[in-house]
Design goal:
Rossmann fold, six-stranded mixed sheet, four-stranded antiparallel sheet, 14 strands, binds adenosine-5'-diphosphate, binds magnesium ion
Length: 299
């Protein structure tokens, strides 16, 4: 498959801050891709460079094969960005805002598609409301709608659900999932890791302007080895000698053992049985993306 987004050797410095320190990244057509990283990692700078709003110091970026600098209009036409900041013109209604945005892209009669977007983002009732009268969550919906008016092949969402209600998050995700099924490439930055875990097929983790992890979500989850076994001993019981070196004790008297695979639990149970050690509780926990994230960021 060809690349929806191609980023080659991109660097960007703001004064003393190296916001992007050499990014190489290909995102294939049809991917649902996650861009994760702590505040200040460079996510928004990278997205702004893709949208042609920030000029990189070195390297180049392409959207659907179009260079975002030398072929700006074609690249911009294929990209829809839902920005992190709430920027809007307070003098227009929701529908007018979307019509004006369509005009920027030279689309004349866009009513049917605008109606469909409004419907999917639950904005139909607000179509004739002035932007300044909308709540923060509603404004964010309009920003999402604005990014979609020209039916871009690639849709980039920069922390679109930061501080918005659960209802909007779910509505937005089901719409974005549908767009992805219809063939649109989606790039999402979020700090809700469970969101990335459930939506993204592949993830890049960014730290100080560098990609520090890039893999499928499934492989990243596998990195934090298998599962974790947690035991609570019954009162008066001591951990058998055979297990003492392998399990670590946590606050609250729980013992923890990382499992490479589920079969690893068998010898543990055997040792407990042999020693006649009774348990108060036993639990096998799956690691989540948050654990991967914390480990990668601490490395
Ligand atoms: N216009 C700018 N002027 C100066 N510094 C900036 C500007 N934009 C971003 N930065 C800096 O670049 C770094 C990366 O910022 P940003 O891309 O917004 O990170 P993220 O979106 O991952 O939180 C930060 O240190 C930020 O302060
Ligand atoms: Mg940002």
């Amino acid at each position: 498959m060809s690349a929806a987004i191609r980023i080659e050797g991109v660097t960007k410095r703001f004064g003393g801050v190296q916001a992007l320190a050499g990014i190489d990244l290909d995102i294939a057509e049809g991917e649902f891709f996650g861009l994760l990283g702590p505040n200040g990692a460079g996510k928004t700078t990278l997205i702004s460079a893709l949208a042609g709003l920030v000029r990189p110091d070195a390297g180049r970026l392409m959207v659907m094969g179009h260079d975002v600098v030398s072929d700006y209009r074609a690249a911009r036409r294929r990209l829809g960005v839902v920005p992190q900041e709430l920027v809007f013109d307070p003098f227009f209604t929701v529908r007018e805002t979307l019509q004006i945005q369509s005009g920027y892209f030279g689309i004349r009669d866009n009513t049917a598609w605008i109606d469909e977007i409004l419907h999917n983002l639950d904005l139909t009732e607000k179509a004739d409301t002035n932007m300044r009268q909308l709540s923060g969550g509603m404004k964010r919906r309009v920003l999402a709608a604005q990014a979609l008016v020209h039916r871009p092949a690639v849709i980039v969402l920069d922390e679109p659900t930061a501080g918005v209600d659960v209802e909007l998050r779910q509505g937005l995700w089901s719409f974005v999932r549908r767009l992805n099924r219809d063939g649109h490439t989606i790039v999402l930055t979020t700090h809700y890791l469970e969101e990335a875990e459930s939506l993204c097929g592949r993830i890049a983790m960014l730290k100080q302007g560098r990609i520090v992890a890039l893999d499928t979500t499934a492989n990243l989850l596998r990195r934090v080895s298998g599962h974790v076994l947690r035991l609570r001993l019954a009162a008066g019981m001591a951990l058998p000698a055979a297990l003492r070196s392998r399990m670590s004790e946590e606050a609250g008297g729980e013992y923890v053992l990382p499992l490479e695979c589920c079969e690893d639990i068998e010898p543990v149970l055997g040792s407990l049985r042999e020693a006649g050690c009774r348990l108060d509780g036993i639990e096998i926990v799956k690691p989540d993306l948050e654990e991967v994230f914390v480990r990668v960021m601490n490395d």
